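User: Hi! I'm a student and our assignment asks us to look at how structure tokens line up with a sequence. Could you show me two examples?

Assistant: Happy to help. In each example below, the sequence comes first and the structure tokens follow. Example one:
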Amino acid sequence: MNYHSIFFFCALSTQALALTIIGPSGAAVLNREVVGDSRTDTSVNIQAIEVRRATSQSSASQVVEADKILQIVIAANTVSDFLLNPEFQASPDFDALWSSSNPSIATVDEAGFVTWVSDGAVRIRLETIYGDYTAAIDVDTSLSSPTTTVIGYQSGSLGKAAWDATRALAIAGGDKNLFTTQDHAQGTYLRNTNNWTASLDWTGVSNWNSDGGSRKAGVAITPYHTAHAWHAGYTPQVGSTLRFVDQAHNIVNRTVVARTRVGLTDIGLVRLNEPLPTSIKVYSVLPSDWADYSPAQSLKGVIAVVFDQEEKTLAKQILNVSSQGFFGAISHSPTEAFATSSAVYPTLTEALITGDSGNPFFIVLTGEPILMGCVYSQKNLPFLSNHITEINSSLESLGPGASTVTTVDLSGFTDY
């Protein structure tokens, strides 16, 4: 409850919870004390106390929107009642009579409790032996807003496949560190078998490069090329060394021989001096017509795997996908969006920080990591699949023997 104390002779702005007190002449009276006979000096203090009460019961229902199963909860409507409570500071036998100007809007009892009947403005009158005073208040209904929670996906959809795959890994548990030993100076790396994504092949994620150390990530999109973020120098310079580690912990180094930006996007590409061996994973991306299989916002709620500069695999939830394929929000705490995700993700995530830009962002389909893009900021990244034509053109510009990115076949999923 909200308490608003005012002296009967102080003018206040007219709004809900605020009282405007008008004297008998119709003019506001400021700082004047009510005076009785010679034995009694009385000032009246009015409290306006908002009392919220429900007028309906909450309800819940499930609906299907594209491939998502949503739970919609409508909370109870509430109304504003008020308690206008006189406190007698000097005269306990002070006589007061409350009345309402419109009982069809609100009623008031002898204790000054104003009860909502219907929405509207009303004046509450106080009659005393010293004069009559009125208070203008608003009583209204606060309409509840429905809350929507994604609780699942339709069978056969891209959203369900992506949701099920990553959620299963998260429930199985583990920790965030990709390596138990990671010594860049000595070139010693030991993969962590307890990592929650240890069943996935992350050999194509570069864990170090000589242009900025571990901070400037890269991810293999062809045997000859890696993708990066372009801003703030996160795409390594020509002459830099990119390091990869295969499943047997062998180091594979390659040198950057060319670099380019994809149009005006934040996507940076580099060409390596020689192709990566087959022991290093090259990642596929969704095809440019991905929206035919995942309508706008249908990837909302899917748990993604996001790398950071310390080679941790973080569980994050997609909160928004724009029509341009730019993720508008990534939840740092995946318990936010799904009712069914409580208690399994907090230990698998943390906030991204400065220096994590350029690290790759994946969803998982049929046991394979699918590259979505490289982190642009703490909560956003450009979606590679919306720039496939420009990316392939840029790859060709980097030199002879250029490859094109590989796209995933989505024909087995529901086509919307």
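Example two works the same way, sequence first and then tokens:
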Amino acid sequence: MDMQTFTANRARFPAAELASYAGRYVAWSPDGSRILASGEDQVKLDRELEAAGHDTASVLVSFVPFPDEGILGGGGVGE
């Protein structure tokens, strides 16, 4: 996976289209240009991807929050 290409393509993905996946996990194509599949459960999504013949090691899965939700992170920052 070329992260530079992935990041550039992902940044161009239409925000309105991504918003339609709010509250779900999405599996991005290796180049970040499209969503291969989505689901409410990451484990089931991984199984779905494998069943469809996708190499899960080359697919990035991320969660799409609802517009009014924040994503917490940064554990360990400042420690």
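Here is something you could point out in your write-up. The CA atoms of residues 39 and 45 lie 6 Å apart.
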